[in-house]
Amino acid sequence: MRNPYQAKPPSAFWKSGVVSQNPYRIDAIYKKKFDISGKTRIAAAGSCFAQHISRHLKKHGYSVLDVEKAPPGLPENSHKRFGFSTYSARYGNIYTTRQLLQLAREVSGKFSPEHFIWEKDGKFYDAFRPAVEPDGLDSPEEVSIHRRHHIKMVEKLFKEMDLFIFTLGLTELWMHEPTKTIYPTAPGTIAGVFSDEDYVFQNESYGQVLGAFNDFQTELNEIRDGRPFNVILTVSPVPLTATASDNHVLVATNYSKAVLRAVAGQLSTDNDHIDYFPSYDIVTNPRLHSTAFEENLRSVRAETVEYVMKHFFSEHPAIEAPAVVSASQSKADELLKDEDIQCEEELLEAFGK
After folding, report:
1. Which of 86, 91, 90 minimizes the C-alpha distance to 102?
2. Looking at per-residue confidence, does 159 or 52 come out higher?
3. Which of 142, 166, 266, 331 might form a disulfide with 137, Cβ 3.0–4.6 angstroms?
């Protein structure tokens, strides 16, 4: 008797596609939509896990843009601490699509931030990237000057890039209610003062996350004067450190990841220029149990990242062999293996009882 499953490949069935597969080398889990050449100018952004992707692309010879390079006098082992050499611009972690959209609107001039300077112990911080100046700046005016320069650099990045790689990280966000300003973390965690009257918590729905990314693309098209670009989306497999919802953190994590994974899949299905790379699916494969994570069950092991990226490079071969990367890049790799990547959300652990 004929049925529609008879002609399907082994990857379509749980037993042959998952149970019988080597979880470190899963056949046919990723098929690229488009090519990436050595000349493709790549912009990388997103949540903490995106830092791993950016690092491996550089290591394999891809042209990952960096429009805000560290000053020559800053030691290399301090780059990450000050938000340099992490993403394609010094914007820190961009956890939500609303935060990404807000950044694009700031570049285009449609959003003029008012409540973006936070204070702590006499020092001042950019609320949209509070961790890039860990010791703060001396005045609000200095924060504003740094912010204006940063936005000019992000505009340059948006105009020059050919490919935008973005890792979706969270659905939970904090907003300044009077101005609808979105922050990567709540005031009072790194800097600033929290008040129930001014700041509200939101947990974005599927429609809100999807709509914000589509609006971001509209802004990007205007900034680029309609010049085409490609997108690769990933979803961070890293669970929430803490939740501001009324749910258990495990339930909150599963909600967030389900929404983000669904959005990434829908965007890839609907758009020829958007590809989805299944890093989340590979890391959370039940065949691995919990071995993909460190003992805290949040941080993804370095060896896990290695085999995740092997799946990527099976479709997008290295431009140059990893062995020929610079000694400085190798040192940066070791630093990322030995300590947590830069992640504001990690700081929320300190507030746990």
Report:
1. 91
2. 159
3. 142
